[in-house]
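Each field is set out as follows.
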Amino acid sequence: MEEILKQILTEIKELRTDVTTLKGDVSLLKDGQERLETSLEKLEIGQKEIQESIIRLEEGQPKDIVALLDRINKKLDKKGFEIQVLNKRVFEVETELESLNRQ
């Protein structure tokens, strides 16, 4: 009878050791899970920031294009006026030459 009680006590001690080991393992797993969840949250925040940056860039592109087109348009207008002035001068010179040729 004493032998059976000793075996039972030994088994209970082994079970306690196993349970303690399992508790440690579970604690390690929980810590790992918390670190993974924290990393996932950081990744989601980073993804959201990237998406917001892309949206800002996409919204800014049409404004940049319009600004460039306005600049080009102003330069073309300026060159157009310069060409008109030159055309008038050429016309006046041609008119003078024509009148000199007729004399």
In short: The mean pLDDT is 91. The helical segments are 2-102. The radius of gyration is 44 Å. Residues 18 and 96 are 115 Å apart (CA to CA).
